[in-house]
């Protein structure tokens, strides 16, 4: 017989003698209940972490975005009577399925009905105070991933309430005709809706709605950055953590310099499913809402691959919903963003595992190096690509003579173009306009003991995630990594402690042995950066070179006065027919 707990208002209160009645391997399950504004939920206690954690899974935070709600802003979920089971994850959103992903459940169900979140909260019997809250936004290039891919119970055991969320992906989250009928950004509105649910309900799970930290990785990190820019999210969070993604990253939003506009992508997808009234957005929307969802996804993925434009369904500037009313650079220049404490950073060799030429046994030549750099600019028009490539080569390949130097410069060029330079450039602007808040920068450069990359590479894209969610988790050790060594465990303890301490106090301190180096704030006068390793250390960056490089890139991609949507039609004819580019790698890396 299950033991019964009741989660009342702010806290879990044991209905027995105050002791946990079941443990790991026990025959009894321990359930508890939470009251939300929509009804009562039944959750379950998990005992694998260092302290028991209550998990509530598959909680709806919006109505299913199907039928007439497809390509619309999310609506509040329906209430229910009685007790709703929150014991199993909801379906993942329809998506490109990434292979060989340590965080992917190969048996997960996918559907359009996917707007669910999951809550992990320490099962406490003494809770006079509410705990800080962390809301995690997954990566995946806006076309894959899910909140349920991450077991956050081990992080929650550090004394926080941890929430993971889903949001609509690919065309379901971002298809746009660039007008008021289909503005796009539905996936971003899902994120806002999830944060509103947290604001209104998290106290029932022991969480403090006035101490919410949003956390994201890769495209999820870019999402966190965009949420700090959005007036719709203002007041819904109080701190932000960004791992390998920025609002200024080339994949983060639709740039005027992109050769594939949202409108063209929408017309190509619509035509592929026989929705042919392309000049009438109202009729087009009605037609698209009736098409089988899996058929739509298949056509979108096929067109993405065929046009070799990397990602074609991404967030965009729009004023209909008003999620992103202007380009991020303009909002930052005017100081129009949420002034919150931030912690952000990137990995030392982000792209290293995704370019065969870099991962091969032989150092690359200058000719191959230039081809690699060219492959990462496939989303832009030919004219813009020339300008961006000139800046990349001048910054990262100039005066490189030896094969090893060329190899290193190539990887640095790609990494800083996609991750590092956008992150630092944004941070430099943020600290000027929000100096009253705390800001921290890191570089994660620990090479995992289970790394299969070449010896000269350290931390690849997404590898810090093993450490944030506890590298000792069985889901990691059972996927070919094997048991972690002592340094792996040390780094994991350090990351979990720093991230959760930042959520608790705004100060990412750590007491971990060797890893507990002092981490000072980043400011306009002190460019402090923590290099996270088994023995972490802090150093001053000299980011002028990469920031100057990326500002040139932004000047190229951001036209001062973007042409109206109808004027972009001619861009379709400019799509080149040259050979295979590494765009598929770019999509995969954003999920790792």
Can you describe this structure?
- By secondary structure, the protein is α/β, with parallel strands linked by helices.
- It has a single domain (about 50-360, about 410-590), classed as Alpha/Beta hydrolase fold, catalytic domain (Rossmann fold, 3-Layer(aba) Sandwich), CATH 3.40.50.1820.
- Helix content is about 30%, strand content about 15%.
- It has helices at about 155, 170-175, 185-200, 220-230, 260-270, 280-290, 295-305, 330-335, 355-360, 365-375, 380-395, 405-435, 465-470, 475-480, 485-505, 545-555, 585-590, and strands spanning about 5-10, 10-15, 30-35, 40-45, 55-60, 85, 90-95, 110, 115-120, 130-135, 160-165, 205-215, 240-245, 340-345, 440-445, 530, 535-540.
- A hairpin with a 2-residue loop joins strand 1 (about 5-10) and strand 2.
- The chain starts with a strand and ends with a helix.
How do the helices and strands line up, and which of them pair or pack?
Elements: E1 3-8, E2 11-14, E3 30-36, E4 39-46, E5 53-60, E6 83-85, E7 92-93, E8 110-111, E9 116-122, E10 131-137, H1 153-156, E11 161-165, H2 170-174, H3 186-201, E12 207-217, H4 219-229, E13 239-243, H5 262-272, H6 281-288, H7 293-307, H8 328-333, E14 341-347, H9 356-359, H10 366-375, H11 382-396, H12 403-433, E15 439-444, H13 464-468, H14 474-481, H15 486-505, E16 528-532, E17 537-540, H16 544-557, H17 583-589
Parallel strand pairs: 1-3, 4-6, 7-8, 10-11, 10-12, 12-13, 13-14, 14-15, 15-16
Antiparallel strand pairs: 1-2, 3-4, 4-5, 5-9, 9-11, 16-17
